[in-house]
Amino acid sequence: xxxxxxxxxxxxxxxxxxxxxxxxxxxxxxxxxxxxxxxxxxxxxxxxxxxxxxxxxxxxxxxxxxxxxxxxxxxxxxxxxxxxxxxxxxxxxxxxxxxxxxxxxxxxxxxxxxxxxxxxxxxxxxxxxxxxxxxxxxxxxxxxxxxxxxxxxxxxxxxxxxxxxxxxxxxxxxxxxxxxxxxxxxxxxxxxxxxxxxxxxxxxxxxxxxxxxxxxxxxxxxxxxxxxxxxxxxxxxxxxxxxxxxxxxxxxxxxxxxxxxxxxxxxxxxxxxxxxxxxxxxxxxxxxxxxxxxxxxxxxxxxxxxxxxxxxxxxxxxxxxxxxxxxxxxxxxxx
Length: 335
Prior knowledge:
mainly beta
């Protein structure tokens, strides 16, 4: 790397050459005692090989520091952009092990507003700041141990544009209650597509084991999800670990409150540094308006630099039962 014009190292070396009787910092009687005829080329600079005096050492340090600083800034920018662009706030929910009953359909609207998020386009992904994500989830019960869910993701950007983001399908099976396991257990597989403007990984697959337990007024749930990208930069990461967890307490027969946790730690072969992980904490409430209704509301805080810092979420759901017969009318499930 050539000297920068006017740098302290350049001035010192120029002074040494112009004043040959000046004592060298290395201890030589003067600069004439050094063998300037033997030169070593460093980039576009020729350096004396015999005497590694202070000025030259400082010059090399300055050049190396500048290169290292530029490289560090570049790496930080790339890592930050990749981390932010991987955010996915379309369905923020910790799953329970129950499935929708057979001949029943559940309609849910997931509304998530990012109060404080990314503010610029990064790696082609639109910013999340002041974006409203609206997701329609439709789940059909198959039998007492299986269901299939379908998602339509949309985003309302801060400039007012409402755009389709993508679709996912999610079959899920559970351990039947007749097995009398001490905890509820089910397994969800979610596969789908999202546009590159909203997710750098367009085709993804999530395997989500679900374990939950009700202990008196307390409810506990854990979803140790595994994610795999099939198209996009995340392909090179392989399988990533994204745990979700929830605990809540029944304050009344109708209202429960607690804490939800959502995270993405990175590849199973080696987790990301803590600052590059995504971690969010949502104090949330669940309200039981009626057996056929579902309501969840929470405010989430991002705990790392790679996570949207503040999100408000709301889930409203309604179950419908479909009796036998093609001409049967829609009716509500029994309480």
